[in-house]
Every structure is written in C-alpha cells, then in structure tokens.
Amino acid sequence: MENKTFHHDEPFKLESGAWLPEFDLAYTTYGTLNAEKDNVVWVCHAFTGNANPSDWWNGLIGEKRLYNPNEHFIVCANILGSHYGSTNALSKNPISGEPYFHDFPFLSIRDVVRAIDLLRIHLGIEKINTLLGGSLGGQQALEWAILQPDLIENLILFSTNAIHSPWGIAFNESQRMAIAADPTWTERHPKAGMNGMKVARSIALLSYRNYATYGRTQSRDEGQVDFFRANTYQNYQGEKLGKRFNAFSYWTLSKMFDSHDVGRGRGKVEEALKLIKAKTLVIGITSDVLFPPEEQEFISKHIPNAKYALIDSMYGHDGFLIEFEAMTETIKGWNV
C-alpha cells in the first residue's frame, strides 16, 4: 500500500463559478498496474471515509478478498473538502496565506469527480476495469460514469441514488443546524463547531440504522429507567467522530450530498442515466431508510442493461459497510 498526494498547481474552476487556486488530493494505491493497464479497480469513498478502503471496506478489498492487490491495481482518493489529506476548509489558502475556514467554496459531486479524473490522468490510467462506491461514493461513481462513459468497463453502486432526496437533504440540514447552534461555530479555529458536529453525527446515526437495528443492538434492560444503551451509543458515536474529523469538512460534504443530481444540465435524470455504457450492478439494502431500495431500483431501471440486487439486512444504510459476505457473493454472481 502506498499513500501519496497529487498536487494540482493550476486554478480549478468549480461548478458554482468559484475557483480553487490549487488543490491536493491524498490517495492510496494497492498492487501494481499491469502492462496492459487493464486491472484498475477504483474505489470512491463515502461521507467520512478516507483514501484507505482497507480501513472501512476490508471485507471487499485486501489480500484474500474479492479485490486483491495481488491481482488488481486499486486506487482510492480522499475527495476535495474531506479531512484526510486533501484540500479542505482547514487547508491554507495560497492567496491569503491563512486557512479557508468558513470561506472555503461550495463543492458539488461533479467538482469532486472532475478533480479525481485529473488524478486518473496523472496516474496514466486510460481505462478503469471496475469503479465502485457506496452512498456518497456511489454518487461520485455514478457521476463519473456519466461524465466519462467510455472510461469505465464495470460499475458497481451500493446504497446510492441519482438525485439526493428531500428526505436526505432534511437529515443533512438538521445536522448542519446542530453545528450552527454550537456557539464556537463562528470562530476561525480548527475546533470550531466540534460539539455541534458530535450532535450532528448522532442525528446521522438515526438515518444510517433504523428502528429494528436499535431494538436489537441497543436494547434496554427490564425495569431500566435511565442510562440506556442507546444513550451511551449516541454519545459514543459523536465522540468517536470528534476524534477524527472536523465540523468544516462535515458541513462541506453534507452540502455536497445535497447537490447531487445527475440530471442537472442534462435534461431529465433518466436521460442522464442512459448515457452510461459500463456494465452496471446496483445493490440496495432492504432496511435502508436513508437511501431506500426504490432509489437503487430507479437507477438500475434507467441505466441500459443494468442489474439490480437487493441484500436482506437489518443494518440499514450501514449495511453496505457491514454485509461483506452477501455483497461479495452478489458481485461474484453478477461477474459470471
């Protein structure tokens, strides 16, 4: 495994019309690009993920896994705006010499994809054998397959959508409201909004799991009146994220989520999906309340010759980070 940084030293125009004077993308590669350059597996990470998919998708990626670096050249980039080495709100603005903080520009999924495509060109990759991503990563993969239809041979999408729903936007707005309610949020400081972000994360967990998941994993004891497992769990998840993320990136990426619409500037969403040429597998989770299965069904219906698969899981949206055995078997069956 190699951790590297790609530096783009030219101004980068964003979809909003704003500019980044330059940017960095932290990225990880596993394995070796073969002589034919036809063994590339590119992974797009989700909301608070990083460029090391063996951290969060170790059931799919790694030695003795479906995507083995002994066979594949695996690439994953930390996206613009994120916390793990790529240019984000805590990065120094080369024009002012100070961190961007609240002045960091709005980023869309399309901006992110255009940036990682520059990394792809830098790496000399002319064809991606398999592109895969879930949730926010799936949104990136879908957008990339539309922008570059001849680049990708196989496309695998997990628990994602073609346009972010009002339901998803409402969850994200509630999380940003929690950050904005933190009195430190207005400060130009790396820790600004941190307590608000912890609350935001606890809100997010409600959408990542569901009623049945909490009933099974955070059950209450008979006769209990306070100090429930669910109380502890919500606080733990907030504290856990607070140790590895920042509120500025959380804000930036949640706004990016909301912007997702493959039909923007292309007519209808359905028409945009028809532009995809890759052999496509779309996987949904039965209990996902944030990206419900009908969103994946919609994608598969409008991508030419796409296949749809549904995995039965109690883990809700987080199922795409947990149900590795079922995901692996589904992909193997599709590849036959």
UniProtKB/TrEMBL annotation:
Record-listed substrate binding positions: 201, 318
Gene Ontology biological-process annotations: homoserine metabolic process; methionine biosynthetic process
UniProt-listed Enzyme Commission number(s): 2.3.1.31
Keyword terms: Acyltransferase, Amino-acid biosynthesis, Cytoplasm, Methionine biosynthesis, Transferase
A Pfam family: Abhydrolase_1
Cytoplasm as UniProt keyword: yes
Signal peptide: none
Pathways involved: Amino-acid biosynthesis; L-methionine biosynthesis via de novo pathway; O-acetyl-L-homoserine from L-homoserine: step 1/1
Major localization listed first in the record, in broad terms: cytoplasm
Listed InterPro entries: AB_hydrolase_1 (IPR000073), AB_hydrolase_fold (IPR029058), HAT_MetX-like (IPR008220)
Localization of this protein: Cytoplasm
Active site residues according to the UniProt entry: 135 (nucleophile), 288, 317
Keyword match Amino-acid biosynthesis: yes
Catalytic activity of the protein: L-homoserine + acetyl-CoA = O-acetyl-L-homoserine + CoA
GO molecular function: homoserine O-acetyltransferase activity
Quaternary structure and interacting proteins, as annotated: Homodimer.
The protein's role, per its UniProt record: Transfers an acetyl group from acetyl-CoA to L-homoserine, forming acetyl-L-homoserine.
UniProt similarity note: Belongs to the AB hydrolase superfamily. MetX family.
Name by which UniProt lists this protein: Homoserine O-acetyltransferase
Source species of the chain: Emticicia aquatilis
Organismal lineage: Bacteria, Pseudomonadati, Bacteroidota, Cytophagia, Cytophagales
